[in-house]
Amino acid sequence: MRRHFLLALLLTVALAPNFARAQTAQQPASHPVILYHFGDNPAWAAPNFNDSAWPVAKNGAWPLPPLRSSGYVWVRMQIPVPPASHQALAAMVHLARDSSEQLYFQGALIGQSGQLPPHPVAVLRSTTSVFAVPSGLAVAPVATVALRIWYPQDQRYLGKEDDGNVRLGPAPLLQSEQHANHLSGILTSLPALVLDALLGLIGVGLFLLWYGSRRRELFWFSLLLITVPFQLLPDALHTFLPQPLPAWLYYAAFVLVDCLGMPVTVEFLRTIFNIRTRWFRIILHIAWVVFVVGMFIPRVGLSQTLSPFAVAVVLDVGLFALYIFNCATILTNLRYLITGPNRAIAFGMMLVPLGSLTNQFGIQPSLFNIKLFFLGFILAGFAIAALLIRQAIAAWRQGDLLRGEIAAAREVQQHLGPLE
Description:
This protein is α+β, with helices and mostly antiparallel strands. 57% of the residues lie in helices and 15% in strands. Strand 10 and strand 11 form a beta hairpin. The longest helix has 45 residues. It is elongated, with a radius of gyration of 28 Å.
């Protein structure tokens, strides 16, 4: 009992700095004065357009357009042009929210990410785009840069604001920086990828053990571990692809992964803790189905056929279903963490929905760059491995004891002689 609480205390201490970093906002980098305006008008790209009446974005962040709107916002800024050099000029764009946008430099369109209406395709963010600036445009010491941005309905409803910036610099330098950021993202994700691949292999091994023993807990936990590497599929697509990923592809992968992992989690908890309550199974299976549908419809292109009110309802119901699923699984694991049996497994499995729940509130704690969500799978994997080892040792000792008793019986029989 003490070992489990000591483990919990050590993990809490280790995770505390990550919680603090997640809740402490970083000081914003220096931004040019950014002006924004809701709506769509191509004339707003012109350098001589009078934007003095436009609101100023605070700390480089502007509010997202209302849900009941066209979804467009224009952002304008004045950026100093670097001194002329033999290297071509380029612009690097970074936005935080899923969107599609066009970049205008001195009134000329120089680049685009995603597709704008009437056939919109938003791209997943936290990535940068680099666009070449034609040499004939970079003649003035200060350039007017405008972004024409379109946000899908789910972003307009769930988000409050977006922030971003546009930087000008030599094209080779900005492209090298973009490549370095991409490589850094890949290297940062490698520890989690390696651990998840290891858990998947352990799951395959447990599945082979189940095939020989036919024990239900082995079956469900082997499936649970086999689904773990798939949990990183959406982020792996985002991290490893060099070009911005269409948002619908990311969320389609996200939905596929949840369709694999959530029902298996329910059945594993029922089996390992011997839960016989029928409502536990019914409620959690309904919750994950509602959540998946709620995330699928607004984020894979179907939202364009729904009214803003319908999109809001679908998203709210889906997120509420996820909240129910997470809270129910947290409380279930907490109960068995306190009362037993299998406290270590309960602790690890409790971290999985806890990581998902904290993510709903914008907090992403991690340990050694491993998110709490995946850390739970790792701890549960080690816990069930330890459980299997203990059971194997107990069976081996039991076999030794039985073999000793048989040998003793034979020895007694030899002393007594053959039975008449």
